Amino acid sequence: MKPTYKAHPWHGISAGEKAPEIVNVFVEIVPSDTIKYEVDKESGYLKVDRPQKFSNIIPALYGFIPKTYCDESIKELAVQSGATDVTEGDHDPLDICVLSSHHIHSGNLLMDAIPIGGFKMIDKGEADDKIIAVMVGDQSYGHVKDISELPEAEISRLKHYFLTYKNMPYEKASCRIDDIYGAEHAKKVITASMSDYEKKYGK
Fold this sequence. Notes:
By secondary structure, the chain is of the alpha+beta class. It is built from 3 helices and 10 strands, in the order ββββαβββββαβα. The strands form 2 sheets. It has a 5-stranded mixed barrel. A two-stranded antiparallel sheet has the order 2-3. The longest helix is centred in the last third of the chain and has 19 residues, at 183-201. The two termini are 30 Å apart.
């Protein structure tokens, strides 16, 4: 028998045949996690990034889109949108949150998701976009086509998480959200990150 190998979740899986309209998502953490996991870039295995020291728990499934990378194209999009202090992308795969009404017990899995918008987040001069998506076929969220269709409370909950999840008590926030954008711009961000990936890791 020929040996079989597990595909690297960042480099060995595509962003999706229908990307950016429908994307593959590798889920790293779920709302019930009290530890923040992330993929080890070298091995592809999930590793412990840090325990969640405070009560800030991710309000949606969280991970990244395979074969994406945030570099010059992502930076240029942020600058074109008015973020004049951005100097670079964050040099990571593109982050994505997936809304679902289903209770998924753990990460380290793949799913299909439809991008509906995102946050233009700037973290210490780096463009660090967060794409918001809905799980394909979800009974509660599957019909949503744009972030403008979500209740304001849902958007505020996601926004609050990203503005505070790196903070230590009494420290000044290190990041900000300059804009909440809809599905069309989210697709531009995804396409730009796919282009950055090809430039960095392509042929």
